[in-house]
Design goal:
With 429 residues, the protein is an alpha+beta fold. The strands form 4 sheets. It has a 7-stranded antiparallel sheet. Strands 14-15-5-16-17 form a 5-stranded mixed sheet, covered by helices on one side. Strands 11-12-13 form a 3-stranded antiparallel sheet. It is globular and about 70 Å long.
């Protein structure tokens, strides 16, 4: 589980900003919202961030996603970009490196992973863990700027052969992390393997309003997945009042052009076919079948959006996974958003979600939530994002959080001008 994430000089984040899942001393709804990963360490399962458009909410989620990509996707070309973009509104910061620091737990063991980087180089990298009450270094890495060569040093508790160390150093390009290089290197370092697989298996990619949510997988893998969690998804859809009694996934191979088929064959992609999804609705005594092409263009449908989110929710309840969702409310009724979050809380174990939203219904229902799950993002006059939690504010007990937010008590709202526009074209004179 993630405890804390620090970001510096990335996109709209200029000065170092910290997002935390650490629970406050509040015991409200403890069993639903908190997990005690080890005695005295309580971590929240949910974070919800509000803010005006372009305030930096999405950039927070992107930061998580960029870090995941840096760890799980090795580079093949040492001149390729790292995917890191610095703060552009200050020339001094544009030339400086930025950094990520993630504090997380794998089972009851605490890890701290730090990366210092710019657009083309991983300058420094460090992984520390706590096998006992005292920290121990797993490895640290530096990239020598003049030669672009990487030097990796392992802590005293880590058993590694000199030959294996040399192989890892040789495979770690200047623009990739040592963790990602480990994934493509035929050596065994249990401490690195455990952390790499946590990032790969328990740390999901960002879900955006345009994400297909698994709906355009190749037919074989999607049908297999759909059957595996079919009972779960049907129950989820019924409780969400979609009136769907069944669904079916089928191949639709004739929909692909010859060019598409040739490209898929050339790159050994699994099936040269598209998927077709059908929902069965039982309306009184009549059975109605509704069909969709399972492509991104269909995602404007709230039914398909929630159906796709069912894949995510199933993973969150079956495994211990971190998922970030940008604009969860996209195409969904506000009550459905609330229902999704409550279903997650009631059925998950040690999973976590971080959600950006404009849906104030969640704040209005804050009596059924905890104050420490809410965060705000706001840009200052220099265009830099600041993030801060609702728990920083001293709010009297019966005050509506939503009304206080609407009134500007917490900031993180758009500053809107007069709605009247001066007409200067000839037609208005």
């Amino acid at each position: 589980m993630i405890l804390e994430f620090k970001i510096e000089n990335f996109l709209s984040f200029k000065e170092k900003q910290t997002f935390s899942f650490e629970a406050t001393s509040d015991k409200h709804l403890e069993d639903y919202y908190c997990v005690e990963v080890k005695p005295g360490v309580r971590i929240l399962k949910m974070g919800i961030i509000y803010g005006a458009n372009a305030s930096g909410k999405t950039n927070l989620l992107k930061a998580f996603n960029v870090l995941r990509t840096l760890v799980t996707r090795p580079k093949n070309d040492k001149y390729e970009s790292t995917g890191f973009n610095t703060f552009k509104f200050d020339k001094n910061y544009d030339k400086k490196p930025g950094s990520f620091e993630l504090i997380f737990f794998i089972r009851a063991v605490k890890y701290i992973y730090t990366v210092k980087l710019d657009e083309f180089k991983i300058q420094e990298e460090k992984l520390t863990y706590y096998p006992s009450t005292q920290p121990a270094e797993i490895f640290s890495r530096i990239t020598h700027i003049d030669s672009d060569l990487v030097e990796i040093t392992f802590g005293s508790k880590i058993k590694i052969k000199p030959y294996d160390k040399a192989i890892l150093e040789g495979n770690t390009l200047s623009n990739m992390t040592a963790l990602s290089a480990f994934n493509k290197t035929n050596i065994d370092i249990p401490e690195l393997k455990k952390v790499f697989f946590w990032f790969k298996n328990d740390f999901e990619r960002i879900i955006t309003p345009k994400s297909t949510l698994g709906l355009n997988y190749n037919s074989y893998s999607y049908r297999e997945q759909a059957e595996k969690n079919k009972e779960f998804k049907l129950e989820l859809l019924n409780k969400a009042d979609f009136n769907i009694s069944d669904f079916k996934v089928e191949d639709n191979p004739e929909e692909r052009t010859e060019d598409e088929n040739e490209i898929r064959r050339r790159f050994n992609l699994e099936r040269a076919s598209k998927n077709k999804l059908s929902f069965t609705h039982q309306i009184q005594n009549e059975t109605i079948v509704e069909e969709f092409e399972m492509e991104a263009k269909d995602q404007s449908s709230g039914t398909l959006r929630y159906f796709g989110l069912g894949n995510i929710l199933h993973k969150l309840t079956e495994n211990n996974t971190f998922v970030s969702i940008d604009e969860l409310e996209s195409s969904l009724h506000p009550d459905l958003v609330q229902h999704f979050l409550l279903t997650f809380l009631a059925n998950s174990n040690k999973s976590q979600i971080l959600v950006s939203t404009h849906n104030l219904n969640i704040l209005e229902e804050a009596d059924n939530a905890r104050k420490d799950i809410f965060w705000f993002a706001e840009k200052n006059e220099a265009g830099a994002t600041k993030i801060y939690p609702l728990s920083d504010f001293d709010i009297r007990k019966n005050l509506s959080f939503a009304n206080a937010y609407k009134a500007g008590k917490f900031g993180a709202k758009p500053k809107l001008g007069n709605p009247f526009i001066e007409q200067t074209n000839a037609a208005t004179k």
